[in-house]
Structure formats: structure tokens, C-alpha cells
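User: Could you check the structure of this?
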Amino acid sequence: MKCRHCGVPLALPFIDLGAAPPSNAYLTREALNGPEIWYPLRVLVCSSCWLVQTEDHAGREELFSAEYAYFSSTSTSWLAHARAYVEAMVARFHLTAGSMVVEVAANDGYLLQYVKALGIPCYGVEPTASTAAAAREKGIEIDERFFGVDLARELAAAGRGADLTAANNVLAHVPDINDFVAGFAILLNPSGVATFEFPHLLRLVQENQFDTIYHEHYSYLSLTAVSRIFEANGLRCFDVEEISTHGGSLRVYAQRADTGKHAASPRVPALMAREAEAGMTGIAFYSDFQRHAEKVKDDLVEFLIDARRKGLKVGAYGAAAKGNTLMNFAGIRPDLVPYVVDRAAAKQGKFMPGSRIPIVDEAHLKADRPDIVLILPWNIKAEVVAQLAYVRDWNAKFVTAVPQLRID
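Assistant: Sure, the predicted C-alpha cells are below.
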């Protein structure tokens, strides 16, 4: 396999999580009678541009299908993040009723609803039919296609150029990262700004966040790699912020390399220097990640087996993609975790891919009164603990497995 950015043959391993089905391919009850497609889940490192990337096995149409079940509006903390983003961008870049905001990977309209409420023209690009329909119900215009150079040219030629583009948690999801990034350089108006948010590879490694690795994430990103990709495709980073979402993310600000006027912030070279100091441009940084992931797996399985032997009841919360990575890597099945609670109606009544653990609503948790609640989306642990505070009434404990086993 060759690097999806620079084309150099890949030989440096990062992690091997065995095999798993696509993490958002939730199963209906009828589908339990049939087979699932499992793909190898191995990640490699490009020792030339330092882009960390999965081996190519599944195409984007297989992963982002019409039944795609991730709806951003399910999380109240993520909605608050989106609202704060919109308010900050409107103030910083002086967006008005004469501006145009475009979100690529608009999902269910979780972010653009706040742009629309301010009277600022906007539209979204979202290829998954299920989430696109939800966005349209909010009155948001959606172009239901995958984004890249061809679509960007079509939109720009139609006078749909952007003064601001938002691309939250999508840069890692694209198999052709060069085509995707080059599209923003085409879609942006001459003085426009593109923002990209993505989990920071530095935090992923330092905090053992291996469960954020799954087939939908084709790439795992550092500012070092992203800056190179942008420069090669007509964009230039001019600022970066470290934000708390998804276990520690970056928000990168970019402009057209040919027309952008925004002054460069010293935060960009400073963060790239930190990445270099951490060893991210050397082989050793990536060499020990496998061992740390396997310790998390072993500790969780031992804990769950011990709980079963003691007669303790276990329930999980959050049928998130990261939870599917963890369940399948650890080989956990309904005998150890009999159900997962999720607030998303689109997931309830279905089953986790691979592990085939039933997904239920919160009423099931209240009726079952488990002794242990395993929180799978550890990145929103505070939100979940507050939401489920009533389980303390029967002395239940909250447990997270990443970055290490913790019982609260």
C-alpha cells in the first residue's frame, strides 16, 4: 500500500486491531440471521509525510450508506460546542447576511441550524441520506453528495462560493484526502476561511485512545501532516487551536494559498515544534502503541469476567463507533455486556456490529438497575454521568476502559 497523500510505500506499522465490521453498520433483528462483512483493521505510518492511515479495504459508499446511524444532535455537549463555534466564527470573521457559510459533512444540521438562526445564508454538503433528511427537516439546504474537486468546481461555478467552510470530524473520514482538501481551495471565496476540526494524533497516542480507530477513519492526523497536505493542495494554515472535544482535538484555520490575507499565528509553528519534540517525525513515537491497547483490552475483559463471577449486573451506555472498536478488539459479547443504552432512536432496537449486543433505550437501564454502567464514549463521560446520576440511588458504579480501567 502507498501513502494516500504522498504516494510513498508504507512499511511502518502503528497498530493491528484484528478485524471488525464497519463501526456504524448497526444490525437489524432480521440481519442477525445473516453474515457480516469484517475487514482487517490495521494502521500504518508514512515515514515521509507522517500521515497515519488505515489499510484500504472498504470504500466510502460501504461505510457511509443511506442507513448511516450517527446523528450529531444526540449529544447535548456537542450541540453546545457547535453553537459556541458559530458564535465565535461570526464574531471573528464578521459574517453577515451577505456572507455564505458551507458545512461539509453537515450531518443532521446540528451546526448550520445556529448559522441559519442568525440570518446568515448557508448550506450543507452531506452524502448520507439519513442525516441529510434530518437536516432538511430543520430547514437547511443540503447537497447530498460526497465532497471533492468536482463538486467544489460545480458549486463555485454556480455562485455558491464560501466565506467560511466548516469541516468538523470529517478530514479523517475521506479516502482521497488530496481531492477533498483541494476542493476547499476551489470552493472558498478569495478571502474565505476554512476550518477543520479533528482528533489530534498526539493526544491519541499519549492517552491511549486506540478505540477512536475504525474503518470510517482513514487517517489519523497531526498538524505536521495536515500542513503538508494543505500546502500541496492550495491551502495554507494560518492558525490553530487546541480544543477538548473527542479526547483532544485541533481546530485548524486555513485560507487559499493564492489569495488569503489572514496573518499567520505563531501558534502554528509552536505546535508543530511540540509535535517534533514529542517525536512525531520519528519511528520510535509509533512503536509501542500496540502494547498499550492490548493492556486496556486485557484489563477490561478480566474486570467483566470477574463481575460475572460475582453475580454483578452490567449494562453499557453509548452505542458509539469507538465502543464498537473496543468490543470487537476485546471479543466482548452479550454474555459479558448484555445490552448498550443509547439515546439515538435510529439505533434503538438494533444490534452492535460484530459483537451483536442489543441496543436499548434508557428505560431498560432503569428497569434493570445494573451494578455497573460501562461508558463506551469516554469523551462525553461527564455528560453521561450527569444524565444517569440516578443510578447512584442503587449504588451502581460507572466504569470507563480508556485510557485505562477506571471505576467511579
